[in-house]
Predict the structure of Threonylcarbamoyl-AMP synthase.
Amino acid sequence: GWGEAVAAAAAALQAGGLVAVPTDTVYGVACLAQDSAAVRSIYSLKGRNGAKPLAICLGDVERLYRYCRVNVPDELLRDLLPGPVTLVLERSEELNKDLNPFTSLVGVRIPDHPFMRDLARACSGPLALTSANISSQGSTLTVLEFQDLWPHLSLVIDGGPIGDMQSPECRLGSTVVDLSVSGKFSIIRPGCALTPTVEILKKKYGLVPESS
């Protein structure tokens, strides 16, 4: 059942493995963010450009303060998280120096998916999370769509199909928004939740788009 799946996935992660997981947007591959060898494994699995950052995934907003320097109201965080949004903030000293060593920022995900939140809570530190696909290929909404990755994974958690398989919008992934500059925001990736996210940032909190 559910508890056994969470425990098995947490054990695989603690052992340094890569685990495929369902999220609220697309399927992902997770490892422990504080495990440098596992982080390197994710890059090699995906054939990912080493200069492209990985997001971290947490189970609760409270834990975000340990790994990030937050310069927006707590209420803003809770209006967007959990949800299909990645918030980019200044990273704290707590985060593994080998994770995205080329940037002082980090993207944070709290997926609105009960399995992912339970798994993140079951692990001691943050998870590093990326989409379950080879870099430059499309996002995946079922486990069969990334079966070429299975041999390289410690565990694949099948949460069934995610979203509407026919809708191209379902494959856009999370909306990525940079909140690292006080009073401003900039959209790094429009993703699947752009309109509601921008509305909250502008109308409720008065943030202004950073001119690119």
Observations:
- The first helix runs from residue 2 to 14.
